[in-house]
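Researcher: I'd like a candidate sequence for this fold, 118 residues long. If you have to choose between options at a position, lean toward the conservative one.
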């Protein structure tokens, strides 16, 4: 089962997809239009690249602090959240327990993805 299918099987998940670290290819499934998924993949890729750049800058200026390389990011709104780990994005409702369960699953499932491509 793919990570996208696994995420969609979780309660509260509305849509999930993958994007290319380089280029504009993406795939998705769930309650999202093709155009919204395209915009989401662009936004997620750009934000991931920014987070990774800031992580590298922090490590250069504060070497030895024990900072880990960024693996992703989370945007938590009043009703919905977006979670990105590696090159996988997930849109979900903020139902009780949903966000923590999804983040945990994504971190475990995507632990071995090489982030040096970013």
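Model: Candidate sequence:
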């Amino acid at each position: 089962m793919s990570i996208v299918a696994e995420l969609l099987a979780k309660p509260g998940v509305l849509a999930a997809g993958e994007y290319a670290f380089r280029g504009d290819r993406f795939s998705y499934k769930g309650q999202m239009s093709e155009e919204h998924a395209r915009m989401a993949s662009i936004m997620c890729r750009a934000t991931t690249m920014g987070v990774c750049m800031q992580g590298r800058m922090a490590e250069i200026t504060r070497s030895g602090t024990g900072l880990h390389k960024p693996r992703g990011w989370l945007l938590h709104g009043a009703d919905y959240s977006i979670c990105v780990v590696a090159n996988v994005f997930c849109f979900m409702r903020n139902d009780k327990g949903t966000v923590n369960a999804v983040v945990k699953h994504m971190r475990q499932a995507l632990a071995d993805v090489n982030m040096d491509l970013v």
